[in-house]
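Q: I'm writing up a methods section and want to include an example of the input and output format. Could you take the sequence below and give the corresponding predicted structure tokens, formatted cleanly so I can copy it straight into the document?
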Amino acid sequence: MPGKLIIVLGPTAVGKTDYSISLAKKYDSPVISCDSRQIYKEMRIGTAVPSAAQLAAVQHYFIQTKSVTEPYSAGQYELDAVALIEKLFAEGHETLVMSGGTMFYIDAVCKGLDDLPSASPELRASLLERLKNEGVTYLAEELKKADPETYYSIDVQNGQRVIRALEVFLETGKPLSWYKTHTEKVRSFEIEKIGLTRPRDVLYSRINQRVLDMMDEGLVEEVRSLIPYRNLTALQTVGYKELFSYFDGVNTLEEAVMSIQSHTRNYAKKQMTWWKRDSSIQWTELQ
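A: Here is the clean output for your methods example:
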């Protein structure tokens, strides 16, 4: 019998960490993180990395193992995570628990990613310069005209994602969506997905409070320490971008906090929209 991978997914702040730890204890499994930002050592507070007690409860993988200065992609995560999963099954685990909310990373494990054309360094540099001067909203509108399918399927507040989609179009003349074959890779293990939800008002309240808790824990200082790296892919993240704008004098600290809350709620909504298309997810509503 092949091993079973249980993936605990759901919107940010829904309660995936505690749920997955409970499940991991039940199956004597580690927790394999599937979060594209918790993997970075320097981004503890703003990414809601599990607490020391939670990390001590069961073994965790892919938590704070990379530096923001190290490029890391969903494609690399696919290779690393699948290799780890197969290794753990070979060591005798029958059931493994994965937990996260990064849609592309989960898809990478479940389906595999398509091989996409690379862009020239000159085009990438040009788009990064435009992002800096024109802002992500302007570039996102350009993407919407060139490739509406991709526009509606990605986080268009994430400048790196918008740039990646635009550079494929500008380099090849074909939209990113054209390259997506949707041919799923065959995995050697069974996959079960458990989706966690909460009533919307409860989820939004949890998101708002989490942001306030992050501020109390020292998020401003964490983001300030990352100013030298602010243009790196890892830092194009809700909770960091808004505070960089605060440091630039674009908004007040109170406005930055409200923006983080608003953008996080929007991201949670996008996560749910993405997953509602997946009929294989077994949904559980938490109170």
